[in-house]
Amino acid sequence: MGMTGLSFCWGWAERTWGAPSWIKDLLGGIAILLFVLLIIAYLMKWRKYPDLVRTEFNHPVSVSFFATIIISLLLLPGILFTYSKPLATAIWATGTVLMAAFSWFVFRRWLGHQQEPANALPAWLLPIVGTLDIPVVGARLAFPGVREINLLFFAIGLAFAVILMTIIIYRLLFFPPLPEAIQPSLMILVGPFALATSAYDSFTGAHDIMLSVFFYFDLALLALLGSKIVLLPVCCPFRVGWWGVSFPLVAFTIAAFRYSAQVPSRLFQLVPGALLVLSTGVILYLLVQSLYKLFTHQLFLPNPAAEKATRMLEPASKPQP
User: Fold this and answer.
1) Which of 47, 66, 79, 248 has the highest Cβ tally under 10 A?
2) What whole-number distance in Å separates Cα of residue 38 and Cα of residue 246?
3) Residues 6+ apart with CB under 8 A from 30
């Protein structure tokens, strides 16, 4: 998701400033390759450890991360669109159906069992508010009814973003702080209104008050939670979960490109430029760290902080039938 979003960012840099197109294409190719490799790896895990996968799917928090597979299916067509519109449309349509079904499934599960307030974490946004990813590429498609489909999921995602973010912030304020190992996941809170900014701009093309509300509220969230990026190298040993900062960051960078296109001030053009540099630097750092830890066999070493975070996420009691 982060690499795909970074490819989109450089696509905007190409259209806005004439940046080399090969950067966008290279990042897009890496994103597709990573998606294929991760899918293969998880299928191997499913075959070898089916009970572990079943446990993850039944967990009240980890089930949310299955939405990242579907969100990737919604984003990758933005890379493939240039090469094959029918293929991109087919993958996007598949992702849209899967996202609708998965969102319905997760929400029905929440309603069917009493939830532990301590489990209300930023990851809860992924399966429901992930519907805001549908218009990201869907706005570029042209077939009968596609605009109404995009508006439907935009409305669902935006409404539930407000509801779930209220619940999550309540949990953050009145329960013990998150362990350091999962502190970077707070950046997920930046994602929904960045996506809302981009979707609203694609629907209206107008620089009105609502667009400004979406953008500046998300800018305030980024300012509050951005320290999670700066403090990553010093807060705790590197974990794969740090990638959770990547997509919200690139989503806001794209929103900044869109918003700056509506603002005539040349000074304001510095905002997406600075964010593009930051996003590229952060994702390259995460990629290098991941590869280094993987090839030196350090990526999956036991980590006390991560184990403590995992224990904290376990439900206090099993759901009643």
Assistant:
1) 248
2) 17
3) 3
Q: What percent of the chain has pLDDT over 90?
A: 71
pLDDT(16) > 70: yes
- For 208, the 3-state DSSP assignment is coil
**DSSP states of 229-257 as a string?**
HHTHHHHSS--GGGGGGHHHHHHHHHHHH
What is the tens place of the pLDDT at every residue in 196-239?
999 999 999 989 999 999 999 999 999 998 876 666 666 667 78
CB distance 83 to 132 below 8 Å: no
CATH number of the domain residue 38 falls in: 1.50.10.150
Distances (CA, A) of 129 to 104, 115, 162: 12, 18, 9
Question: Under 8 Å CB-to-CB from 228, ≥6 apart: which residues?
Answer: 183, 184, 186, 187, 245
DSSP at 318: P
Q: Would you call 296 helix, strand, or coil by DSSP? A: coil
Q: Residue 180: inside a domain, yes or no?
A: yes
Q: Does 11 score more than 70 pLDDT?
A: yes
Domain assignment present for residue 184? The answer is yes
Tokens of 207: 């620089």
Residues 6+ apart with CB under 8 A from 73: 91, 92, 94, 95, 98
Q: How many CB atoms lie within 10 A of CB 31?
A: 23
What total of structural domains would you count in the chain? 1
Please tell me the distance from the alpha carbon of residue 55 to that of residue 110, in angstroms, as a whole number. Answer: 17
For 4, other C-beta atoms within 10 Å of its C-beta total 28
**How many helices and strands, by DSSP H and E, does the chain display?**
16, 0
Stretch 264-286: mean pLDDT, rounded?
90
pLDDT at 293: 86
pLDDT of 102 over the 80 cut = yes
Is residue 149 within 8 Å of 171, Cβ to Cβ? no
What pLDDT sits at residue 228? 65
